Amino acid sequence: VQLVESGGGLVQPGDSLRLSCAAVGSTFGGYTVGWFRQAPGKERDFVAAIRWSGGNTYYADSVKGRFTISKNWAKNTVDLQMNWLNTDDSAVYYCAAGNVIASSNRRPSNYHSWGQGTQVTVSS
Question: Which of 50, 51, 86 is CA-nearest to residue 68?
């Protein structure tokens, strides 16, 4: 499945952004869709995940209570609503899809499809 992210940008601390991950020419089917982020010089870290055919959501501790992952059936997207952004949230954000079970959804290597990434910069 081909994935395309959108919605990144430059915001100030405390602001919100909404990222979208679209499945182009296909659907997410039974895949798990995850959001990851990578800051310069750092590893790609798990942010959140959701199974397209189910309802459970999963979050990294660093974003729990601030970020919300959701499915938009009409637009065929998985969205990441990010509130109360801080400078530590600055990174390139990637969405990924794969046949991933819940216990393994935090590992980037378990996903087989990736988007090109969208830059999120939080700065005053």
Answer: 50
Q: Which amino acid is at 27?
A: T
HSE of 23, CA atoms in CB hemisphere, 13 A:
23
The burial class, CB within 10 Å (0-12 / 13-18 / 19+), for 85 is buried
Return left, alpha or beta for 112; rule: phi > 0 is left, psi -120 to 50 is alpha, else beta.
Answer: alpha
| Count of beta carbons in the 10 Å neighbourhood of residue 48 | 26
Q: What is the pLDDT along the chain (124 residues), one digit of tens a residue?
A: 899 999 999 999 999 999 999 999 888 888 999 999 999 999 999 999 999 887 799 999 999 999 999 999 899 999 999 999 999 999 999 999 999 988 999 999 999 999 999 999 999 9
